[in-house]
Design a protein that fits this description.
By secondary structure, this protein is mainly α. Helix 5 runs antiparallel to helix 7, helix 5 crosses helix 9 and helix 7 packs antiparallel against helix 12.
Length: 293
């Protein structure tokens, strides 16, 4: 029996999707996937609470110094609350940024993603961009909430407000730092093939590994200043402008930072490291198969 040509369904050829549209679709998918996870909102809620507690941190500083300057507020925004020199905000962002890559590769959903968005490179770029914007947006919201909390706490305590215009530049550097951090998390999760290993590396390397490497480099002839150019030494110098400190406080701040680079130079170095690691991650993602994870 032959089908009636008048009632047979008409098949419409699939519409071609350009690379730009495919990229935007991939970004929307990543954003919806991240927003659909309950853990995302739990972590962001914790970040919001900790940011609001910044006013308490500033008041504790006010008890001993009887004044709060813009440098103290900028440092509190970038570094409080501390977790052994790695801000808690970075750890939460690390969890968010490593999830999209590791989940796709481990669950086997990556193949569907690659087919849906027309290529691995598009999928990887979307993950990096969404992670970058999430990290930057979270940092911006954290800085804003922390600043409001600080201003309210100082007003309630009857203390003078700092020069808020001088806090804007350090806060913007903090936002840029977190954007790079998210890209580093995504790329290293691809390169190391494991979310757990990537998390451990990103926690331990800035705390211990880079310090030890810096000490070893300092013992080699002609490499005395090499430790200044290590990734997270430059990253700390990007966040902390040592030259803005009082003369008595500079040696201690310089020892914590671990780099003598100026803030603009350190920012450029950290951005270049993030771009280089992202490029390596792209190379690895294009070569990686789901079964190899």
């Amino acid at each position: 029996m032959t089908a009636d040509p008048m009632t047979a369904p008409v098949l419409t050829p699939p519409a071609s999707v350009g690379p730009v549209e495919a990229f935007f679709r991939a970004c929307r998918y990543e954003a919806r996937h991240l927003g659909a996870l309950r853990s995302t909102w739990i972590l962001l809620g914790v970040v919001a609470v900790l940011s609001l507690l910044l006013g308490v941190t500033v008041l504790l500083d006010l008890d001993t110094r009887q004044a709060v300057g813009s440098v103290a507020v900028a440092d509190a925004i970038a570094w409080s609350p501390l977790a052994t020199q790695v801000p808690t905000l970075c750890f939460f962002s690390l969890v968010l940024a490593t999830g999209p890559v590791s989940t796709d590769l481990v669950s086997g959903a990556a193949r569907t993603t690659w087919l849906a968005v027309n290529g691995r490179g598009t999928a990887y770029a979307a993950k990096c961009l969404v992670g970058c914007l999430t990290g930057a947006g979270t940092a911006a919201a954290s800085a804003l909430l922390g600043s409001v909390s600080c201003a309210v706490s100082l007003a309630v305590a009857g203390a003078a407000q700092p020069a808020w215009s001088e806090v804007v530049a350090p806060a913007l550097r903090f936002v840029g730092w977190m954007a790079c951090w998210s890209v580093l998390c995504t790329a290293l999760a691809v390169v190391l093939r494991s979310r757990v290993v990537a998390v451990l590396f990103l926690v331990l390397w800035p705390l211990l590994g880079e310090r030890l490497v810096g000490m070893l480099l300092g013992r080699l002839p002609g490499l005395d200043g090499a430790s200044d150019w290590l990734p997270f030494a430059a990253g700390r110098a990007m966040l902390t402008d040592v030259s803005a400190y009082a003369a008595d406080d500079r040696p201690f701040a310089q020892a914590l930072v671990g780099s003598h680079l100026s803030t603009p130079a350190a920012s450029g170095v950290f951005f270049l490291y993030a771009a280089a690691v992202a490029a390596i991650g792209l190379w690895a993602y294009r070569r990686r198969d789901v079964t190899g994870t």
